[in-house]
């Protein structure tokens, strides 16, 4: 009999898990939000550790309009001039590309992988479906209204603020708390950019190739602007980071919270043209108070497992939130290998935890270090660790040796 898997959450972690497990398991996905709300968002970077997994799943880069990054560029905040260019042979060093894409296109492709093709293995996806409780040992999921679903495996992929975490960890000491920084995120279209400057700047020009560009203040105000092209160079994603005290309005606790253009322009008014001019054409401004939590003592309990932001919430400074969610999902392949039965699940999840938790916890620490303005050598060292991963079976093999 195929295993019954209930996945709580249809973000990156949940959909990727469904796409991987559906081949040999009966999968149900429960999403508390509407389809329109969960599909929103701006840009997302996918390092080679993520891209390896996506390629193995049949991810269509063309369909998701992904831009391949060629490296980093740093700019002088006083005049906007290029200070340093770091081209990278990402495929040669890490075995896969570094991609930059729109979050909605990324999720749409994961949704396709999770729900299209063979109807006999298609998961059941239920929106507006709130989970009230889980029994981690019996494998029971209780929904709002009293309906109870039985499961061999419960995958909690319901995000940073999930109230199910303590069911697995055993206490509520690991709630996400503010890091002290906030980010405005928005898109600027190529058509609007050309209206401002006549032609695209070199850091946007498709002929130059895709680069992640960084501009940081050096006056102690700890503000930064990170940009990268996405959607076949039709848009550039802007991430404007700054200490919380600059913000006059409330950022809320969700990356769906609407931001205020006037505040963007005020906080970054001393940044050079054309950046400030581009900001005036921002689309879908979101403001996100960054939060994380300390590494958890376990991601598993009985038949339940935490993955994605529910397990290892981190700030976006090394672009690893989505990548670690994909690593979690890929790791759960161990549940559909070697004819694992219902009785084997708790031990299989412990093996997964032994491989995944130390690595994801280190990536959390690397991200915290990045928020403190590491020097270039240490930043690249941490990035190399983050980007070097060959999947769950290699990780388990390393543990055994």
UniProtKB/TrEMBL annotation:
<dbReference type="InterPro" id="IPR036188">
    <property type="entry name" value="FAD/NAD-bd_sf"/>
</dbReference>
<dbReference type="InterPro" id="IPR002938">
    <property type="entry name" value="FAD-bd"/>
</dbReference>
<keyword id="KW-0503">Monooxygenase</keyword>
<dbReference type="InterPro" id="IPR050493">
    <property type="entry name" value="FAD-dep_Monooxygenase_BioMet"/>
</dbReference>
<dbReference type="GO" id="GO:0071949">
    <property type="term" value="F:FAD binding"/>
</dbReference>
<keyword id="KW-0560">Oxidoreductase</keyword>
<dbReference type="GO" id="GO:0004497">
    <property type="term" value="F:monooxygenase activity"/>
</dbReference>
<feature type="domain" description="FAD-binding">
    <location>
        <begin position="4"/>
        <end position="366"/>
    </location>
</feature>
<dbReference type="Pfam" id="PF01494">
    <property type="entry name" value="FAD_binding_3"/>
</dbReference>
<keyword id="KW-0285">Flavoprotein</keyword>
<keyword id="KW-0274">FAD</keyword>
<comment type="similarity">
    <text>Belongs to the paxM FAD-dependent monooxygenase family.</text>
</comment>
<protein>
    <submittedName>
        <fullName>FAD binding domain protein</fullName>
    </submittedName>
</protein>
């Amino acid at each position: 009999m195929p295993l019954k898997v209930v996945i709580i959450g249809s973000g990156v972690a949940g959909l990727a898990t469904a796409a991987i497990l559906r081949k040999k398991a009966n999968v149900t996905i429960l999403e508390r939000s509407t389809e329109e709300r969960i599909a929103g968002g701006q840009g997302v970077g996918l390092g080679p550790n993520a891209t390896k997994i996506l390629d193995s799943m049949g991810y269509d880069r063309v369909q998701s309009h992904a831009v391949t990054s060629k490296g980093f560029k740093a700019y002088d905040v006083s005049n906007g001039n290029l200070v340093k260019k770091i081209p990278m042979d990402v495929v040669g060093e890490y075995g896969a590309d570094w991609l930059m894409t729109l979050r909605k296109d990324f999720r749409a492709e994961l949704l396709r992988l999770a729900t299209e093709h063979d109807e006999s293995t298609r998961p059941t996806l239920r929106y507006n479906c709130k989970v009230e409780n889980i029994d981690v040992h019996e494998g029971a999921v209780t929904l709002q209204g009293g309906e109870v679903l039985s499961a061999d495996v419960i995958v909690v992929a319901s995000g940073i603020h999930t109230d199910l975490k303590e069911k697995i960890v055993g206490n509520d000491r690991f709630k996400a708390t503010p890091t002290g920084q906030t980010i405005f995120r928005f898109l600027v279209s190529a058509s609007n950019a050309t209206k401002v400057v006549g032609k695209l700047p070199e850091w946007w020009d498709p002929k130059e190739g895709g680069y992640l560009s960084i501009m940081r203040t050096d006056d102690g105000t700890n503000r930064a602007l990170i940009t990268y092209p996405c959607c076949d160079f039709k848009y550039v994603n802007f991430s404007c980071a700054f200490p919380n005290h600059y913000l006059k309005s409330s950022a809320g606790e969700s990356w769906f919270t609407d931001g205020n253009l006037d505040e963007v322009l005020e906080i970054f008014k001393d940044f050079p043209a054309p950046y400030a001019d581009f900001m005036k054409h921002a689309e879908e401004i979101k403001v996100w108070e960054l939060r994380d939590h300390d590494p958890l003592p376990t991601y598993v309990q009985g038949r339940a497992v935490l993955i994605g932001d529910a397990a290892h919430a981190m700030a976006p400074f090394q672009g690893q939130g989505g990548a670690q969610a994909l690593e979690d999902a890929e790791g759960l392949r161990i549940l559909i290998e070697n004819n694992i039965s219902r009785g084997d699940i708790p031990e299989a999840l412990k093996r997964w935890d032994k491989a995944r938790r130390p690595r994801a916890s280190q990536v959390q620490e690397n991200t915290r270090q990045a928020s403190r303005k590491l020097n270039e050598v240490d930043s690249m060292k941490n990035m190399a660790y983050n980007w070097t991963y060959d999947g769950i079976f290699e990780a388990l093999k390393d543990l055994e040796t």
